[in-house]
């Protein structure tokens, strides 16, 4: 018998597709509902139906209160480990609940009620978890904005979400520099038209900040007053279909998409994954080394582990340089983590600094059972290196901000399937993954095409985009009627393994961060000297891909090219943020185009990556490609 035969996966997946309502109704028994669903799946609601219609629930209750009531009060809920500040702290479930009750009461004093939006522009500190759960407790909708975004990006999100309140901090901490959040927040509020009523600011000891009279309030003062007065907000019952959070993700234009997550489906799906996909038991220590600004952080630093009664590690540090390539192994051994979830880019960085894995052998990793990778395609050399060094299963899994949890993975809890390098393994329950051609016709095994998911999507996936049903329909459901378009391309093999090979749109993946090249082109085009531009992702040994901007200057511009290129790099950092890792702007005399005017991005990318390429038959001016080759060579 091989491991394939021992896994319950095939039976479970088949049952989830044959009887989705029965399958998810059974999974829903793990959740404490205030009122049960009248319909497990109501096809008449929303863009493709809604899960757990009619049910009333509270996400914070399921993450905290019920564990405190059921014997986990003194168990550690959160370990905060920050090599960047040299501190480690812990919160039991009871302590976390007390913090959340108090902050939720403070938010209510500011008039925040069910359905109101609250933006969090926060670093990786315990208060971020407190804030997210406090929103969930009172039915407010949080929207966390990643700290590596610039003021303009924050302003766009403020204008879209129209928050009543913003919670932020004086600073984030990056290796070697303090990122002052407060000036970025002030600038963003200045740029936005939807002004919040108030801001609550966490003053970190590393950075002082000025509070604006009448608008800004000191977090620590509000907290201590609320605790002294024994203020406690109760859990507010919300509909299972009410939004828990909005998380913005790059769209194909500069305007990000506000992915909505509902309460009920999210609870059921995430709770199911902790044991069945990740193989983690309540009470065990789990570590997701992402940022709370990404969906991975929402699902597996905050909600998944707490819904499951596990202990979650929140890490404010990097895989290398804080202080060395042993940082991850120190955290695992010190806190006894049974699983680590991170991005392949982190492992590429560790491998570069410690190719022999000598740091790994300095630590006791005996509790570590599994390494999970996601956020970008896990390249086989990285997976192989991790397997050899750690000697535990290394599981790539594929998901998207929109789905909120794994589309394809290897279900440890159901029984591991054989690993095939380069594949995130098989579709998870509820996901009917298919590969189709442009006419939505299914393609045979082994043939590349568009990866789509037959509707309905399982619980936990996006019901819509924030106040943009039509954009959601057009973006995801219009091109392949009856299916969700992932915008990922790839194939499935004879065994049903999924291979995700690239995007079908302009999104690139830089160190696990999803970015729109179209959005970057809008920034480049705003430079007064730029006539035309193209941004494309080129291969990078650590980050996977990095953006490269090609610019054509307006005729008559005689300024030094290098100076203009520097200005453009700064412009992207100032407008989009450091997270874009945009460091390469190259001036070219013209952009290679087809006779119909389309920029030949694919060919440019091949040249930049040093891959084989052929002259496209439709090219307007073949010499334009020589110009590109020369310009790239001069910059390398
Ligand atoms: C499955 C669905 C999904 O895909 S959800 C997304 C999953 N993705 C992830 O979890 C991201 C994984 N990547 C990482 O955690 C980081 O890239 C790791 C591997 C830790 C490396 O970090 P780092 O060396 O800082 O590189 P980077 O490319 O992330 O950063 C580029 C520049 O941005 C900065 N930055 C980063 N984070 C922040 C932040 N929170 N606040 C302010 N600035 C930030 C970095 O300092 C870096 O700046 P600089 O250019 O070096 O000056």
Describe the structure.
This is Propionyl-CoA synthetase. Residues 67-454 form the AMP-dependent synthetase/ligase domain. Belongs to the ATP-dependent AMP-binding enzyme family. Residues 9-63 form the Acetyl-coenzyme A synthetase N-terminal domain. GO terms for molecular function: propionate-CoA ligase activity. The chain has 2 domains: 8-490, Rossmann fold (3-Layer(aba) Sandwich), CATH 3.40.50; 506-634, ANL, C-terminal domain (GMP Synthetase, Chain A, domain 3, 2-Layer Sandwich). Helix 4 (59-72) runs parallel beside helix 11 and helix 18 (601-609) runs parallel beside helix 19. The chain has 19 helices and 32 strands. The longest helix has 17 residues, at 93-109. It starts with a helix and ends with a helix. The mean pLDDT is 96. A hairpin with a 7-residue loop joins strand 1 (39-42) and strand 2. By secondary structure, the chain is an alpha/beta fold. It is globular and about 70 Å long. Strands 5-4-17-16-18-19-20 form a 7-stranded mixed sheet, with helices on both faces. Strands 7-6-8-11-12 form a 5-stranded parallel sheet, with helices on both faces. The protein binds propionyl Coenzyme A. Propionyl Coenzyme A is lined by residues 147-148, 172, 174, 179, 290-291, 294-296, 318-319, 343, 345-346, 349, 374-375, 399-401, 511-514, 543, 578-579, 581.
């Amino acid at each position: 018998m091989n491991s394939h035969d021992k896994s319950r996966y095939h039976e479970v997946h088949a049952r989830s597709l044959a009887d989705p309502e029965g399958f998810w109704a059974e999974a829903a028994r793990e959740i404490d509902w205030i009122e049960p669903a009248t319909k497990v799946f109501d096809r008449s609601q929303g863009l493709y139906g809604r899960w757990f219609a009619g049910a009333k629930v509270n996400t914070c209750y399921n993450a905290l209160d019920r564990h405190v009531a059921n014997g986990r009060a003194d168990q550690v809920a959160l370990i905060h480990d920050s090599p960047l500040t040299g501190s480690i702290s812990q919160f039991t479930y009871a302590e976390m609940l007390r913090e959340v009750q108090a902050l939720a009461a403070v938010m209510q004093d500011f008039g925040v009620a069910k359905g109101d939006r609250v933006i969090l522009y926060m670093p990786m500190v315990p208060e971020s978890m407190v804030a997210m759960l406090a929103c969930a407790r009172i039915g407010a909708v949080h929207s966390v904005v990643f700290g590596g975004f610039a003021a303009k990006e924050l302003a766009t999100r403020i204008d879209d979400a129209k928050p009543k309140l913003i919670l932020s901090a004086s600073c984030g901490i990056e290796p070697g520099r303090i990122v002052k959040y407060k000036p970025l927040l002030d600038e963003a509020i200045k740029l936005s038209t939807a002004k919040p009523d108030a801001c609550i600011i966490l003053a970190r000891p590393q950075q002082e900040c000025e509070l604006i009279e009448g608008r800004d309030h000191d977090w620590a003062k509000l907290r201590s007053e609320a605790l002294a007065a024994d203020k406690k907000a109760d859990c507010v019952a919300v509909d299972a279909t009410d939004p828990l959070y909005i998380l913005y993700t790059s769209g194909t234009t500069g305007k990000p998409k506000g992915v909505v997550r509902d309460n009920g489906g999210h609870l059921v799906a995430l709770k199911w994954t902790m044991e069945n996909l990740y193989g983690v038991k309540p009470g065990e220590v789990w570590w997701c080394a992402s940022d709370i600004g990404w969906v991975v952080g929402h699902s597996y630093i905050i909600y998944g582990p707490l819904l499951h009664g596990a202990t979650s590690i929140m890490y404010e540090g990097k895989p290398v340089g804080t202080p060395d390539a042993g940082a991850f192994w120190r955290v695992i051994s010190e806190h006894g983590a049974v699983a680590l979830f991170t991005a392949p880019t982190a492992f590429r960085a560790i491998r570069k600094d410690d190719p022999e894995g000598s740091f790994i052998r300095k630590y006791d990793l005996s509790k570590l059972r599994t390494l999970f990778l996601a956020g970008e395609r896990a390249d086989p050399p990285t997976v192989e290196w991790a397997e050899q060094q750690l000697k535990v299963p290394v599981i790539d899994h594929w998901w998207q901000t929109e789905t909120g949890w794994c589309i394809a993975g290897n279900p440890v809890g159901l029984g591991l399937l054989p690993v095939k390098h380069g594949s995130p393994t098989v579709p998870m329950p509820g996901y009917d993954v298919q590969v189709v051609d442009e006419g939505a016709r299914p393609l045979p095994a082994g043939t590349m095409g568009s990866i789509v998911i037959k509707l309905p999507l399982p619980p936990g996936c996006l019901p819509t985009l924030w106040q943009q049903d039509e954009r959601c329909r057009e973006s995801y459901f219009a091109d392949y009627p009856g299916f969700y378009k992932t915008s990922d391309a790839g194939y499935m093999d004879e065994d049903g393994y999924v291979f995700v090979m690239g995007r079908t749109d302009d999104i690139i993946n830089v160190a696990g961060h999803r970015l729109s090249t179209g959005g970057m082109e809008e920034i480049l085009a705003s430079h007064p000297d730029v006539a035309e531009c193209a941004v494309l992702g080129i291969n990078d040994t650590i980050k996977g891909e990095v953006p490269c901007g090609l610019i054509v200057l307006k005729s008559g511009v005689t300024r030094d090219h290098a100076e203009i290129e520097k200005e453009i790099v700064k412009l992207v950092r100032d407008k989009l943020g450091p997270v874009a890792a945009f460091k390469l702007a190259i001036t070219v005399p013209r952009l290679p185009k087809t006779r119909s005017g389309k920029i030949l991005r694919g060919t440019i990318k091949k040249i930049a990556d040093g891959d084989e390429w052929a002259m496209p038959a439709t090219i307007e001016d073949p010499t334009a490609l020589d110009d590109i080759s020369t310009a790239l060579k001069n910059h390398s």
